[in-house]
User: Which sequence fits this backbone?
């Protein structure tokens, strides 16, 4: 029995799907299946009910998974303690980032990490919030940059900055003549939004004062990326709401749409660093969060530091 086999089993339990678990473990599905069977042979028992219509662990399998989680957590804690002994933030660190933040924050963050923590090997995983939380629970990543709050009492959050929303619209659009846009101005407008699964979709609907995707004028497109939506706005298909970091044109290009500040009770999102509650590496992870806080991006507002929370982490 090997630690790798236990990690495969935990990933399989987390994802409840051989293919997705194999992707998380960066191996082929046959490889993961073979390793699970080897573990079953070693333990002399069946862990996965392969006769069920959907994925299911046997009663013994559920018990083994819980023990495997504890073993993996203890090994990770041991590794984290040795990295800490070598200095702050050294060795590999798997960081999740949501797609509506990664292209805009990472070009700023990665050079800062390289400058301040030269021995840190940052491995970035870009994915939707729900998938990143699953990976956190499954120990596939160490922390994630997400929009707060997140669901689940098994996570700890470190607020970093507030990112206002801006309205983006074609230059010839009537809203382009306004200096500030309100919720009332958006009534009846076609607002282009991301597809279901993106946390920004719900945040944008709230900022518009809308609570249902089927509301009149809510949206005719459900794009997979902000880049696609920006091209649609530039082509005159409607308006959208962009987080501040995404509101500016790429460096060296001319803006193809105009942006206006949005006046709304929900006209911003809070970005924070999230990790598993009880993580032995929490103090080290907070250093990464502090690096982001200490170097705020233009257009964002740093969240005041909760000294009591910071003291509790130390």
Assistant:
């Amino acid at each position: 029995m090997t630690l790798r086999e236990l990690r495969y089993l935990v990933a399989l339990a987390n994802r409840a799907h051989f293919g997705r678990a194999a992707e998380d473990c960066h191996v082929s599905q046959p490889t993961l299946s073979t390793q699970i069977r080897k573990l079953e042979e070693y333990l002399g028992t069946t862990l996965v009910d392969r006769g069920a219509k959907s994925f299911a662990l046997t009663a013994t399998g559920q018990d083994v998974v819980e023990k495997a989680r504890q073993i993996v957590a203890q090994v990770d804690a041991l590794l984290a303690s040795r990295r800490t002994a070598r200095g702050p933030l050294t060795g590999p660190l798997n960081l999740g980032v949501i797609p509506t933040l990664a292209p805009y924050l990472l070009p700023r963050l990665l050079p800062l990490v390289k400058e301040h923590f030269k021995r840190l090997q940052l491995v970035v995983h870009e994915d939707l919030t729900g998938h990143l939380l699953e990976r956190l629970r499954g120990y596939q990543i160490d922390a994630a940059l997400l929009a707060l709050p997140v669901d689940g009492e098994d996570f700890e959050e470190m607020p970093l900055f507030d990112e206002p929303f801006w309205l983006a619209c074609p230059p010839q659009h009537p809203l382009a003549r306004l200096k500030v846009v309100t919720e009332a101005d958006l009534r009846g407008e076609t607002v282009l939004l991301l597809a279901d699964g993106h946390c920004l979709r719900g945040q944008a609907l709230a900022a518009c004062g809308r609570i249902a995707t089927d509301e009149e004028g809510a949206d005719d497109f459900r794009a997979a990326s902000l880049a696609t939506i920006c091209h649609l706005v530039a082509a005159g298909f409607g308006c959208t709401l962009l987080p501040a970091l995404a509101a500016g044109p790429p460096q060296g290009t001319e803006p193809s749409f105009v942006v206006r500040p949005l006046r709304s009770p929900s006209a911003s999102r809070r970005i924070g660093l999230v990790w598993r509650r009880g993580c032995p590496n929490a103090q080290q992870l907070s250093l990464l969060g502090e690096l982001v806080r200490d170097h705020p991006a233009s257009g964002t507002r740093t969240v005041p530091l909760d000294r009591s929370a910071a003291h509790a982490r130390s």
Remarks:
- The two ends are 36 Å apart (CA to CA).
- Residues 212-219, 307-314 have pLDDT under 50 and may be disordered.
- The CA atoms of residues 61 and 116 lie 44 Å apart.
- The longest strand covers residues 155-169.
